[in-house]
Amino acid sequence: MSGIIANVLLNGKKAKRGHACFVENFPKILYSLLSGESQTFKLPDGSELTAALVYDNIEFYTHGKHEWRMRALRAAAGEGDDSYGIIVGSGDTPPSNSDYALESKISHGDGDNLLHYGPVTVSDIYVTDSEVYFEITRDFTNNGSVDVTVKEIGLVVYQTILYRTNTSDHVNVDFKALIIRDVLDTPRTISPGSTLSVTYRISVALPFLKNMALWLRGLMAGTTVTLKNQGGGDTNLQLDRGAYREGISWSRGAVLMLMNFKAGSEDDNGGIIVGSSDTAPTLDDYCLGSKITKDQVYYGSSNPVELASEVDKWVLRFRRTIRNDGTSPVTVKEIGFKFRYRCYVYYYTAGMSLADCDEDRRLLVFREVKGPYTLNPGDLITVTGEIEIPK
Q1: What is the pTM of this model?
Q2: How far is it, in rounded angstroms, from Cα 5 to Cα 21?
Q3: Kindly report the CA angle at 205 between 22 and 306, in degrees rounded to 5?
Q4: Residue 102 and residue 90: Cα distance in Å, rounded?
């Protein structure tokens, strides 16, 4: 499966059969980030919000201040904050992919029938022979005088895409959404003075690469992570950032992309790319073995196609056409996905042009050896990239 898996651990031990139960908010958040398209999210209070998690508008604004922020999938809530991160409850209705809240959340507190919510921690990544994973953990302590029984757990994440000036909110998307809900095979009773440690382990496996796990880890931790660029060097991505400034003359708008999969025609440095090497992929790969460039073939646009709900999974599909406009055959043996991180916020003050950020990064997150497919002059192939998320 070319996808993302989550598992539940309680006090360090696997707590349920099978994988954790993603709900439909998760593929929608991921699809909106990657495609830039609006999706309708179900919020914990039952309301709905339709929004896109990308902002791209370069336009001059005359004003005295601006404020901006971008983050998504942030799970790292602080101590005492039970509005997001890992949460627990007492409901035992079987999970559904349409769930948007716990059935009966146990709130933060130090009295009876409450639990003290510790801070959420996000581990570094771990690499095995077959997968890369990281862990999201939170401790729940019973400081009351009666037993508290946990039957359900969930993961709520925080999204903000904001760009405002004193004239208007040009974009202001700010919401928290449940992305996982699980009912435990065996309820856990926390006696007074005891603590339950709850962990979600998020993993990816080939053909996804270590870069993919690092990117997700950075989003969920709300921190800066270091990935490998196509030259093998280090590239830092700051995945929860923003600024507020007053006394500025004017601004040039903003581009806020945390994790985008689109690429224009003849752009061979993003989206779906192809190559001619059949060297077996490894989790540490950061480039194709031998990329076929736009000088050798014509790259059409790399665009989102659909977010499909199938019986046992969601599938995020992206598509690109590759055409041989040359005079010699070209053989495709490998396929890669490159995601884009773009942060651009410029402003002017005291006659100077300054930037809160101006970063454009394209990084490989997927490599698979396929085929071979020989394209004779005039031939084309349509490559479909898929990301699967189990139900």
Answers
A1: 0.96
A2: 9
A3: 55
A4: 8
